[in-house]
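We include the entry.

. . .
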Amino acid sequence: MDMRICVINIYVSDLDFAIEWYREVLNLNVSDDHNNYPIAVDLETDNDLRLLLHKAEKDTQVDVWRESSTILTFEVPNIREKMKDLTEKGVKLMNEEPQWYPDGGERIAFKDPFGNVHELAELRSRAAPKDRM
C-alpha cells in the first residue's frame, strides 16, 4: 500500500473549550508534538495516528446517517461502563442502547459540543451477543 492515514482532523469552533472537553470527557491530553496553538493541537493517542483539534469558524450541522460524514470510533473494553461515564459527564448518546455490528462488536454514537459525531465500540471478534446466539 502506498498510502496510509497519518492524521485525523477534528474541526472545532472553540479550541480552548475543545481542549478542555476532550481532556475532561474523553480523557485525551494535548501532545507536545505539533502544538500549533491557537490554530491546532495534537491529542495524545496510544498509536502513531495523529488526532488533531483544528480551529474552525463554526460548528458542523451534519445530519449523521443521512449526509456524508466521517465518524471517529474509539475502542473501549466495556461499552456500557463508558456510556455511563459519558452520560454522567453530560454527553448525549444518539441511541439508548449500543447496536450490534457484523464486524463483531457493539457501537454507539455521540456528538461532541461542536456537532462532530464519534462512536464508542466494544469489539468482540469471535463472540456474538447472548441474545443473538
